[in-house]
Fold this protein.
Amino acid sequence: MKGTTLADGPTINTIAERAGVSIASVSRVLNGLPTRQETVRKVMAAADELGYVRNAVARSLKSRRTHQVAFAMADVGNPAYLAMLRQIQPVLKDAGYRLVLHSTDAVVADEIDVLHSLGERYVDGLIMVPLRVTEAHLEMLDAARAPVVIIGQVPEGTRVDNVRADSRTGVKLAIDHLHALGRRRIGMINGPLDTVPGAARGAAYREALGGVGLPYDEDLVQIGDFYRAEGGRAVAELLDRVPDVDALMCANDLIALGALDVLRAAGRRVPEDVAVVGMDDTDLAAASWPSLSSVSLGSAERGRAAAELMLERLQGGDGEPRLVTVAPRLVVRASTAGAPVADFPAESRTDRKESAE
Amino acid sequence: MKGTTLADGPTINTIAERAGVSIASVSRVLNGLPTRQETVRKVMAAADELGYVRNAVARSLKSRRTHQVAFAMADVGNPAYLAMLRQIQPVLKDAGYRLVLHSTDAVVADEIDVLHSLGERYVDGLIMVPLRVTEAHLEMLDAARAPVVIIGQVPEGTRVDNVRADSRTGVKLAIDHLHALGRRRIGMINGPLDTVPGAARGAAYREALGGVGLPYDEDLVQIGDFYRAEGGRAVAELLDRVPDVDALMCANDLIALGALDVLRAAGRRVPEDVAVVGMDDTDLAAASWPSLSSVSLGSAERGRAAAELMLERLQGGDGEPRLVTVAPRLVVRASTAGAPVADFPAESRTDRKESAE
DNA sequence: CCGCATTCCGTAAACGTTTACAGACGATGA
DNA sequence: TCATCGTCTGTAAACGTTTACGGAATGCGG
């Protein structure tokens, strides 16, 4: 089959022979440099007949540009990363770059590997969402042989282009919203505090409560992980301990789905008895019943911003490292906004015209 | 910033100079070919001090291998493609290949482009999920200068490695299930019939009805598109026309979600009054309320199979084109199986330990 | 008919590797 | 001591491009 067809394709040399010119002329024609009409014609004809296609590897070697950019994150399955990817891809593509995808499976060593492999020069740049930023990361960043854009928090003074979310403001939006709805016993279901998001969201919750004049009550906080089942269990415990809770701020959408499961099982109405807010505004938020109010941290925007920063660097931007912060947005749906809406929800952007056959 | 650090990295020449040997020796040491101990030591030392990293582009040029494989589909946002991607990526990675991602945005010309660009030899192979297979596709496939694996239906006799789902059996599983539950007025909500999935699923529905001895009734079939809102509208029309429908076979999960919306609004209980089955078994199926029974067409398995076929080709497999068909699976959840379950649903595989900050 | 500017093209070097080949060298046996 | 062998290493070519440089050809004015 195809394996046998892999006979060496034509090169610039083949064309030169057939057209009776030198390889330099062929190259010039192919690159649109000024050349006599007659030569152009001959070369084009030969190239067409041979079905010539430029060899990208050889070009890259000479030009020191691969026209590839890498994107590295823990797991494409995570909707937040996916949203970034979906923005990054078209921006790069339109600018003539290919996208090399690295999934590090949440293994820090893999992230370091990716940074190290920049030295192989198989890409012109790297956009990375690190899980956490270790000393090793910082060292490799300093030594990086190609431009890097980091999405996520980095220590002050790190000399690297950086795009951030603002979960502090995000949590505040949600708490303000709940407070405005008259809720006064607002619980928080968080993930582990030793993760960057967990810590940030926990602190933001406390601060936002203060902002609306509510006391911080440890009993109202329950820690689990970032998954649905454990989120549900955490909510069950909280309900036991604080039966009069009237709202739940959940650290991500999966936790919030778990909360809906448990509240339903416990016979609490959402949002009448307990209002629920999720975080990340994933597709799941629109799909659940009742649909879930959720704080969008602008994953898509962050992806786009990162891609644009990268392009600027690649186009010779040599300035100081830049920091872009993306504003969060509260998307209000049925889980806080009164009666669950019963008409058609907004289009989910998840599926395309055709699903795979 | 980094831009200034991009001074040319060390090459094999730099090492040769510093170690006082020839570049051939350096290359030999770096590749582990037999060399005198003393030389090995000197070269290693020099390489370490210089922080040398092999240039992937130059290697590729010489070895005619890029260690990259491309994956092309319409849209990463589609959960089916995403499921494939998530399997393909680790298989390739473990085998030492990088993944280049192409999103064609459902534009056929883009797909042709991707096939054409194989001639640039920037990848060693291509895994592709075409929207539909045109004449142009077939021509390019024949002329392809690297191994290609197609996921999806291709015309008989196309000489290409191929992985397929079996939506016919999939639909049959669902219809048999509904029939066994005592449903006799089973409607179908389908997408456009001029798409490959639409046509296949429509025909399979008719055939499966026959299989359980039910008549095919045109009134029970409603065509819309593959999205949620339109799916809902289609269901509303069907309900108007055939009020006694007692089950709905939906051509994908989004349509099924639309069905749930409309059934709820119409005061029909799911599954007591109307049972609903979706297709593709996306994350949304587990997240919805009631959770959605869905036919899995094995996207993940298809991805894995495709990646494995590709690796075999790359490792020199020269045999006949191969065909792998993946068996479908019916995942029964609350929307057909009696009372909606109220305990914690199975873990969704969507999220990871840490969500993006 | 010569000198010169202009236009077009070919030669060759370079990008950073791998590798075939042959030379240098030390050791071995006669 | 010399031929022979084996081990190790260096030289150079090759992968497929791009591009600096200089030479050939042409046209023009004097």
About this structure: The domain at 11-54 of chain B is CATH 1.10.260.40 (434 Repressor (Amino-terminal Domain)). The CA atoms of residues 271 and 339 of chain B lie 7 Å apart. Chain B has 14 helices and twelve strands.
